[in-house]
Give the backbone structure.
Amino acid sequence: MLIYVPPHPLLKHWLAVARNAASPSALFRSAMAEIGKILLYELSRDWLETYEAQVQGPLAVANVEVVDPTKPISIVPILRAGLTLVEKAHEVLPTTKTYHLGYARDEKTLEATKYLDKLPKAGFSKEDKVLISDPMLATGGTIVRAVRDVLDKGADVKNVRVMCCVAAPPALTKLSETFPGLVVYAAMIDENITEEGFILPGLGDAGDRAFGTTDD
């Protein structure tokens, strides 16, 4: 498995904003969207299919290279927090399709139970490129379930990429052992997780912070 942590100063800046417990919900969500935007640029660099064409410029015909609009990226955010990282996907990627997966994690067993599956009924083809978005890869239970669900729908692991804000060693180890051909993009790899399954230093509960549902 390949893990990329792009050394971009803006990525570090927005991660600092997201880590700050004093950042209000709107600012946290904005920071996550900016992090996702930068990661989208990085992960699509060698992933998008293009073709050569010609366009009529102001002075002459120009030879150009454009992204193939007939081959959209299938985006699969894991609800709720996964939505924040792909909020600006339409600003980066010329053509996309968005599907959704929802999982609830048992606070005692840390096991993930699926409550929503909006993957395509017809499934994916082996050539389809699928991007799974989940801000926090902690124990690895949820993301492993998500990748497996996407593969069970016909996708090829070589064409699946995972985008996250912060990842922890337990999740990365589990992903590597389960899906050797997977590619993961992260803004940061943190040190460890708590017994309750939260990443240290992490971001806290990204879903609650993004949508203003944190308990007082």
